[in-house]
Amino acid sequence: MNDEQIQSFLDEIGDSFHILKRQVEIAVKQVDDEGFFAILDNGSNSIAVIIKHLAGNMISRWTDFLTTDGETPDRHRDQEFILTPSDTRQYLMARWETGWQLVFGAISSISSINFGTTVYIRGEAHSIVRACHRQMTHYAYHVGQIVQLSRYHAGDNWKTLSIPRGQSETFNETLRQKQMKRKNLDNKG
């Protein structure tokens, strides 16, 4: 990849991570504490547990991303699925934010100079592209779970994160109108 392609990849992967982060944050704001910590059944995870797990994963994977194995010795993955009294919503969301700051910091530290670095996760060698896609896939899986659980717990108060049902044509027409305005402005310029 040339410098432009590398930067394009980094911009796109960073934007995609930002979208996932934002989806969760919008979704969980619609859920009260009871819903945040609720489990549907004994085999399920609560929103709180999934956030705790994702934060633990991010902190482990993205700390010293280019120089250490992404499964850090101080990570205790199994403990991420057990809530303790100190795991308040505020604490978990602060860890969530810490994890994302590490993600975005690691991505911003990548350049054409170090893009060829081999990254290790649990001793397995990855290209930077593969490591980023591995994490993106993992996070997207859990983001979908959080959004679905948030939707369930918000009930009738839920505000969709995408185009509301039955409004696709209206949305598409609004986009067409914006594109026409932009095209007309571009032609006048």
Can you put this structure into words, describing what you see?
α3 runs antiparallel to α5 (128-154). The chain has helices spanning 3-28, 33-37, 47-62, 89-108, 128-154, 168-188; strands spanning 119-121, 124-126. With 189 residues, it is mainly alpha-helical. The longest helix has 27 residues, at 128-154.
Please provide a brief summary of the model:
The chain is mainly α.
Task: Jot down its keywords.
single chain, about 190 residues, mainly alpha, Four Helix Bundle (Hemerythrin (Met), subunit A), two-stranded antiparallel sheet, 6 helices, 2 strands, flat
**Name of the CATH homologous superfamily of the largest domain:** dinb family like domain
According to CATH, the fold-level topology of the largest domain is Four Helix Bundle (Hemerythrin (Met), subunit A)
Q: Helix/strand/pairing class, anyone?
A: mainly alpha
Strand arrangement within the widest β-sheet reads 1-2
Q: How would a crystallographer describe the biggest sheet?
A: 2 strands, antiparallel
- Amount of beta strand: under 5%
**Residue share in helix:** 55-70%
Tell me which CATH architecture of the largest domain applies here: Up-down Bundle
| Uncertain runs | none
Q: Which shape, going by the Cα principal axes?
A: flat
CATH uppermost class of the largest domain: Mainly Alpha
Radius of gyration: 20 Å
Overall number of strands: 2
Order of helices and strands: HHHHEEHH
> How much is the average pLDDT?
94
End-to-end Cα distance, whole Å, is: 35 Å
Count the DSSP helices. Answer: 6
Number of domains: 2
